[in-house]
Design a protein that fits this description.
It contains 3 helices and 12 strands, in the order αβββββαβαββββββ. The protein is mainly beta. The protein has a single domain, classed as Electron Transport, Fmn-binding Protein, Chain A (Pnp Oxidase, Chain A). The strands form 3 sheets. A 7-stranded antiparallel beta sheet has the order 3-2-6-9-10-5-4. Strands 1-11-12 form a 3-stranded antiparallel beta sheet, with no helix packed on it. It has a two-stranded antiparallel sheet with strand order 7-8. Strand 4 and strand 5 form a beta hairpin. The structure holds flavin mononucleotide. It holds the Pfam family Flavin_Reduct. This is Flavin reductase family protein.
């Protein structure tokens, strides 16, 4: 067995210094809506448009996503921290009391999110204690607003620097 040079707590605390946004992954499987809060979201490819998300083994939404073959990435705004907390609670009915809105492919979406990215499951890779799901993005919609951040285990704000996007970015 390969010796563990970095233990899980150290890994979590160290990667916690990498600030991220916060998303909720939603899907519907056998007529049941599922959703979970997620920050292990990465843009992988522009052409074709691919992204990836990492599901902890045991996350109920992982099974629902792989069963249905479709999911939506909902990028949360600063005002949606309560939504992030709701969808992070284990073993709860995440949608209870929340008005459901549906995207084009019968996948529920989080209303008023900064963006919805409709995805088809492209491939699934098992990696350590997580299941990595690559999504091929089939449609997007966006709205203006400030993003919700996550840093060192806490929700945070993300403040833009400067008035214009960096020239090399677009
Ligand atoms: C900010 C934040 C980010 C999270 N990111 C992930 C993640 O990337 N992958 C993951 O498996 N769980 C992540 N979680 C934990 C899940 O949201 C949580 O385990 C959820 O209850 C799983 O729901 P489910 O089992 O009903 O699918 C995150 C939680 C929070 C608060």
């Amino acid at each position: 067995m390969t010796p563990q040079l970095v233990d899980p707590t150290t890994m979590r605390q160290t990667m916690g210094r990498f600030a991220t946004g916060v998303a909720v992954i939603t899907t519907e499987s056998d007529g049941v809506p599922h959703g979970m809060t997620m920050n292990s979201l990465t843009s992988v490819s522009l052409d074709p448009p691919l992204l990836l998300v990492c599901f902890n083994h045991g996350a109920r939404s992982a099974t629902a996503v792989t069963d249905s073959g479709r999911f939506v990435v909902n990028l949360l705004s600063q005002r949606q921290q309560p939504i992030a907390m709701r969808f992070a609670k284990r073993g709860e009915d995440h949608f209870g009391g929340l008005g459901l809105e549906y995207g084009d492919h019968r996948v529920p979406v989080v209303p008023n999110a900064l963006a919805h990215l409709d995805c088809e499951v492209d491939r699934i890779v098992e990696a350590g204690d997580h299941t990595v799901v690559f999504g091929r993005v089939t449609d997007v919609c966006t709205r203006d607003g400030d993003p919700l951040g996550f840093y060192q285990g806490r929700f945070s704000d993300i403040t833009p620097h400067g008035a214009e996007p960096e020239h090399w970015f677009f």
